[in-house]
Write a structure and sequence with these properties.
Elements lengths: L1 E3 L9 E6 L7 H13 L11 E5 L2 E4 L4 E4 L2 H4 L8 H13 L11 H13 L6 E6 L2 H16 L3 E5 L8 H4 L19 E4 L19 H13 L6 E6 L13 H14 L2 E5 L23 E4 L10 E6 L17 H16 L2 H22 L3 E7 L2 E6 L10 H13 L2 E2 L1 E3 L3 E4 L7 H19 L1
Parallel strand pairs: 5-15, 7-8, 7-9, 9-10, 10-11
Antiparallel strand pairs: 1-2, 3-4, 4-5, 6-12, 11-12, 13-14, 14-17, 16-17
Helix pairs in contact: 3-9, 4-9, 7-8, 10-12, 11-12
Pyridoxal-5'-phosphate (PLP) binds next to helix 5.
Amino acid sequence: MGYIAGTLFGWESMARYANIVVEPPGPRARKVVEQDRRYIATTTKTSPVVAESASGGVVRDVDGNDLLDFASGIAVMNVGHSHPRVVKAVQEQAERLFHFAGTDFYYSAQVDLARRLASSVPGQCERKVFFSNSGTESIEAAMKLVRWNTGRERFIAFLGAFHGRTLGSLSLTASRPVQQERFFPTVPGAVHVPYAYCYRCAYGMEPSSCGAHCARVIEEVYFQYNVPPEEVAAIFLEPVQGEGGYIFPPKQFIKDMAAICRRHGILLVDDEVQAGMGRTGRMWAIEHFDVAPDILCTAKALGSGLPIAATIFPARLDMGHGAHSNTFGGNLLACASATATLDVIEEEGLIERAASLGEHLHRRLKELAELHEIIGDVRGLGLMQAIELVKDRETKEHAVMERESVITHAYKRGLILLPAGRSAIRLIPPLTVDKDFLDEGVEILDAALREVRK
Ligand SMILES: Cc1ncc(COP(=O)(O)O)c(C=O)c1O
């Protein structure tokens, strides 16, 4: 059965991608969910999608339903599921050599990947790469790197930030209290300041007249009352806040962060774990802001599903022998996958594609906002788009339960979505999809929003 389009487009069309054969979650999915509850640690699950296989942007669940993937495995499958080029590279590598501990021995796959990553980061300096396996580890490495080099102990991070959940990165994370509860004390030294969340300005100001107040307070307030700048090792910055709600700051804010760093000998750490790898229509999201970071952390989409992360840093900051290392970082299979991923992004022009498809999706979401009062804000860059749901456009009260219902109704119609922040929904399909795929996703979202309004 194909999903019949709603009325947003004034005509009805049979879906080309979503195909619901059993109302999800079907019997097989329910069984897996039940077993998962029994044997798997409680984490952050949001929806009972039980995947069996996937190709491009379409996920087939265990009951035979085809679902449009607007979550990309949390911004991982930028080149689409099971891209043949990535599959082939991993298969060929698996036949040659799985693992050889690149921290203690040598292989060229790591060097070649590091060279490409080092030269991709904006800025003139020579760079090196530390490979690890997850976003949080890439941040841990950056925290150690900046302390080791500066001898300074404090960090500045932002309210709404998400940098990971191991105890070091958790000390920088501030997007939900549940992430912190019962884990204190984390690593000392982190100071959180408001981010440029202009839709909900922490200071109640308007971007047109605030004079970049949220950037200015760092020097004019924090550095005057509480935080000696000469003790700050780094500012940890997501150029687009991800888990915190898909928040896109004005250019000036990011430029001001770089200027503050320059003035006080502070290092700027750019967390591109979610926004990087072409997702926003640039290789790195920070390129939208004409800023060159000192250190750039990436993970997620780098390995197209194999765990790999990279902390890319100026060669002059390299630490001494034995200061930091691991077992699996830059594992051969992960390097093969990451190298093929970079090839696909380049050869298929996925960065440009993300930019133009992103404009299309953004336009469609704006149209949706004209029909649905509950959409308080539409924001995004490239194929990193979001809608924020509110009970009332004046008060901007978060529509928390409504957001959950929209995600559930969308899933039942064949669209996989993820929440972000308190009441936003992120739309992050693979960069390889086409306009019809995006339109179909928007049609289903429209139907789900109508359902919630009933
Ligand atoms: C911006 C950002 N940094 C770090 C992380 C942590 O990455 P991981 O879950 O791979 O540890 C995430 C995960 O969502 C993220 O979005």
